[in-house]
């Protein structure tokens, strides 16, 4: 087999317009979005010998294409493998397409096994997925044979050092030329391996220029859903990406630094056994005390579905300290302060099939678990390692989904996926919640995800719908924390898995419309009005007099905000760091009062958003 150069592959991938990234239908000569003339690709009839492919232009020095395809290898290529079919009736049952993307060579090296063992496990899992109507095709980045007629049979071999953009070239080739049903607009993409096997995109953080905010980038698998290559970066930063159609529901299976082939095989066995859906017959939820009210709203769908929880038996128990009474549990949720690692074994349910955690998280190597106010660790990876039942795991903690270069006991995600968890939703960066206001940010994402999972849709579609919910109010206006919440939460595990249904209806793939129908109206201007170093301006001019009036208005608003934060959340007045005036693209403006609180042993930030008249819109805090 001849190996194609990457420059050749980039030139012949015409699934999208090379100028604007718009998806173009087969046979189109011009892009409907920007008018760019497209390369001509003629697919030969299946029964006829393929004709030489005419290309309008070829890069200087590019190798000429053969007039006849190379002879097939005696060993089937990974992406040419197809699950066996048993007639037309069986094909009708396969309603959903999907792709498994991995690198068998890199994964075998990481797990300390033979490459053949990895390939055999992946292909066996793809066959098992047929039982739930998923036709998975295996795309092995270590050995992929192009399907595009212009390069049919050319071998591509990638390593983890190649970019995620390079890996999407394989997806584009499969999506256009490898699917059996061209009318399917939405597929599942199951990435097997962490960033050291299949690269994970890293994009610029929406709050990278915010003073005193530490995160500057975000690890996210969202770019794999769109396949727009390097154009993803500016589109994602502006928010315009969400006006494009999504092609894949994406989930990833990462591995710890001390993972073995048994960890891999164990996950695939559990997922294969969930052909009828993941049975959720009990749940365990644990929340930080100040976020208890919001957590009760997030988990209300579980209560409404009458899913039992062992926490109910502790609702009359309480602890007393410093003149306060702290109840252990309320409406099915366990509360931390009173519950932490010193007594968790009395309350933690290792037999639950759904876990929800609304606690603090950290990217510090010294904090491997989730944290409660003032008392430190509330739960550790070793507790999750004791679970006994295949389960779904949702966490709102900062860095709750961290996994890069960690061992099992150093990451809640890796410990969970190595034990019994099949689906995990968590954040790669600092997460945000809204204190005692309408739930938003991580609370909204978790709540809608739970609602959608209970409705019977797949995990990938549930996350898609949860993200979509952000765009369905306020005329597309999204402040930075909302955009961060959409991008930083990733799904881990097979995205086609779902909860157990009460009916026999199987999964149905539906076209993924753009997340935003009217476009994203994001903040386009931030002007700092005050920092904690500012001094009162002397009214020595007309400009000074005008500023003094503005200052007085801000001070009146600040008094309202200070009272709000202190009375409700105990945030000290003196912790105000700065005040910004922000403006959306449509001209509407608002003020942001930023506070920093270090009483809990690590910094927590609060942002109070108000109208220019001083009405409090919401109060956002970091997890």
Quick structural overview:
By secondary structure, the protein is α/β, with parallel strands linked by helices.
Describe the structure.
With 623 residues, the protein is α/β, with parallel strands linked by helices. The chain folds into three domains: 6-184, no CATH class; 278-519, Rossmann fold (3-Layer(aba) Sandwich), CATH 3.40.50; 523-622, no CATH class. The chain has a seven-stranded mixed sheet, sandwiched between helices. Strands 19-26-25-24-23-22-20 form a seven-stranded mixed sheet. Helix 3 crosses helix 4 (115-128) and helix 9 packs parallel to helix 13.
Shape: globular
Strand-residue proportion: 15-25%
Helical content band: 25-40%
Please name the CATH topology of the largest domain. Answer: Rossmann fold
* Total number of beta strands: 26
Tally of contiguous helical segments: 16
Euclidean distance between termini CA atoms: 52 Å
Uncertain stretches: 1-15, 41-92, 535-540
Largest beta-sheet details: 7 strands, mixed
Strand order of the largest sheet: 12-13-9-14-17-18-21
- Would you identify the CATH architecture of the largest domain? 3-Layer(aba) Sandwich
Radius of gyration: 26 Å
Broad structural category:
alpha/beta
């Amino acid at each position: 087999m001849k190996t194609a150069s990457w420059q050749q592959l980039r030139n012949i991938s015409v699934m999208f317009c090379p100028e604007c990234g718009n998806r173009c239908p087969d046979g189109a000569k011009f892009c409907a979005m920007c008018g760019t003339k497209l390369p001509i690709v003629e697919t030969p009839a299946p029964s006829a010998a393929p004709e030489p492919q005419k290309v309008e232009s070829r890069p200087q020095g590019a190798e000429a294409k053969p007039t006849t395809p190379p002879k097939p290898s005696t060993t089937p290529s990974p992406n040419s493998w197809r699950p066996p079919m048993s007639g037309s009736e069986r094909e009708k049952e396969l309603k959903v397409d999907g792709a498994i993307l991995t690198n068998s060579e890199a994964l075998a090296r990481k797990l300390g096994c033979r490459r053949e063992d990895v390939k055999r496990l992946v292909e066996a899992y793809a066959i098992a997925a047929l039982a739930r109507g998923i036709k998975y095709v295996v795309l092995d980045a270590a050995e992929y044979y192009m399907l595009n007629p212009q390069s049919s049979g050319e071998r591509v071999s990638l390593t983890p050092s190649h970019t995620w953009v390079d890996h999407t070239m394989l997806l584009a080739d499969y999506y256009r030329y490898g699917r059996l049903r061209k009318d399917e607009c939405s597929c599942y993409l199951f990435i097997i391996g962490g960033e050291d096997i299949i690269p994970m995109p890293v994009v610029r953080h929406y709050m990278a220029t915010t003073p005193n905010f530490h995160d500057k980038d975000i690890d996210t698998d969202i770019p794999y859903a769109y396949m727009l290559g390097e154009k993803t970066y500016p589109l994602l930063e502006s928010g315009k990406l969400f006006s494009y159609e999504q092609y894949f529901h994406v989930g990833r299976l990462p591995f710890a630094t001390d993972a073995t082939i048994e960890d891999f095989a164990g996950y695939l066995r559990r997922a294969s056994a969930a052909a009828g859906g993941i049975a959720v017959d009990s749940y365990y939820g644990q929340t930080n005390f100040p976020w208890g009210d919001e957590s009760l709203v997030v988990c209300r769908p579980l209560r409404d579905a009458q899913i039992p929880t062992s926490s109910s038996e502790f609702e009359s128990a309480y602890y007393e300290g410093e003149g306060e009474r702290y109840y252990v549990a309320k409406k099915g949720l366990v509360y931390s302060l009173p519950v932490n690692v010193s007594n968790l074994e009395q309350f933690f349910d290792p037999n639950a099939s759904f876990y929800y955690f609304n606690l603090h998280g950290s990217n510090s190597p010294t904090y491997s678990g989730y944290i409660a106010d003032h008392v430190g660790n509330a739960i550790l990876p070793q507790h999750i390692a004791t679970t006994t039942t295949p389960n779904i795991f949702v966490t709102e903690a900062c860095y709750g989904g961290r996994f890069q270069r960690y061992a099992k006991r150093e990451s809640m995600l890796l410990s969970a996926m190595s034990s019994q968890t099949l689906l995990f939703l968590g954040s790669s960066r600092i997460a945000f919640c809204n204190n005692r206001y309408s739930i938003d940010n991580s609370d909204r994402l978790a709540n809608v995800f739970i609602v959608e999972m209970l409705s019977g849709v797949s995990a990938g579609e549930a996350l898609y719908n949860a993200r979509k919910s952000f765009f369905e109010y306020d005329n597309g206006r999204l402040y930075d924390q909302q955009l961060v919440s959409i991008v930083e939460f990733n799904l881990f595990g097979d995205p086609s898995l779902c909860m157990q249904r009460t009916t026999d209806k199987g999964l149905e793939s539906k076209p993924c419309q753009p997340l935003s129908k009217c476009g994203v109206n994001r903040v386009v201007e931030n002007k700092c009005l005050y920092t904690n170093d500012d001094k009162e301006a002397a009214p020595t001019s007309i400009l000074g007099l005008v500023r003094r009036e503005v200052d007085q208005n801000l001070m009146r608003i600040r008094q309202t905000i200070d009272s709000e934060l202190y009375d409700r959340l105990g945030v000290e007045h003196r912790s105000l760091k700065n005040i910004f005036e922000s403006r959306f693209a449509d001209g509407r403006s608002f003020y942001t009062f930023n506070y920093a609180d270090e009483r809990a042993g690590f910094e927590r930030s609060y942002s109070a958003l108000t109208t220019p008249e001083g009405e409090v819109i919401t109060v956002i805090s970091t997890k």
